[in-house]
Amino acid sequence: MEESIQPHWVDKLARVSLPACLVSDVACALVSGFAVAPFCTIVDRSVIQNANGAVPLWQGVKNGFKTLLTKPTTFMKSLEFKLLFMVYGATYIAANTSESICVNQHIDPVIPKLLTTFVVNTAVGIYKDKRLTQHFGTVKPTNFPINSYLLFWTRDIITIAFAFTFPKILGKKLADTGKVKEKDAIKMFQIMCPLMIQFVATPLHLLGLDLYNNPQRTMGQRGTFLRSVIAETLVVRMARFLPAYGLAGVLNIVMRDNLDAALRKMIE
């Protein structure tokens, strides 16, 4: 049976016992989530406040870094930091543990990992967006529009696919050409894929925010709004997703590999 198992995950069959893997997976996920939460917190708050007209984008970014550097305790106690840490910690836990469980059962993890990570990320991510949009909104908090939920749902599934599924698939295909090692190819796509998908995900994100902040606008007015903020928002969100799923994704991979090796030496 195992002779036929030759996809990119086959090497993980040599990992240590499942309980040890899961402990390692959770630890790596929490470290990765904590590493990216501060920067993502600053960007998310700045984008939301810029979208509703409260604070210009770059002023919001400046204010966020100032608070982080001068009042780190206050920053980390804030609602927005707690929500972002929750989102990325939970997302990486879902991705890591679902992969380990599937590999332990000799199941190709591609689809289960995508679905599990998408469900978890969407649940906590949309909750986060709703709370932050209402918390920093310039209008009295109201019910969140169903169309905003749908836009955020679409944004999340394509983002998760390009952050956790396509890097390994594309990395394997590139490695098959013999021009680059598979691990190096995966790391390269782990950085590129989350950035490239922002050309689609960012307009969806902005439109979802605008539907809540300005429900009375026509489609023409929404188009004008998007054109006025898309360029700078795209730059900031690409910068946000570089650490969020790019660099943190690589960090997560390296930590899991190193912990696996350390655990195997301890057991041996």
In words, what does this structure look like?
The protein is mainly alpha-helical and 268 residues long. It has a single domain, classed as Alpha/alpha barrel (Mitochondrial carrier fold). Helix content is 81%, strand content 0%. The protein has 9 helices and no strands. The protein has helices at residues 18-51, 57-70, 72-77, 79-104, 110-135, 146-176, 182-196, 198-213, 219-267. Helix 8 packs across helix 9 (219-267). The longest helix is centred in the C-terminal third of the chain and has 49 residues, at 219-267. The radius of gyration is 20 Å and the shape is globular. It starts with 17 loop residues before the first helix and ends with a helix. Residues 1-10 have low confidence and may be disordered.
Task: List the keywords.
Mitochondrial carrier fold, disordered N terminus, 9 helices, single chain, globular
**CATH-assigned fold name:** Mitochondrial carrier fold
Helix content: over 70%
CATH domain class name? Mainly Alpha
Q: What letter string, H or E per element, gives the SSE order?
A: HHHHHHHHH
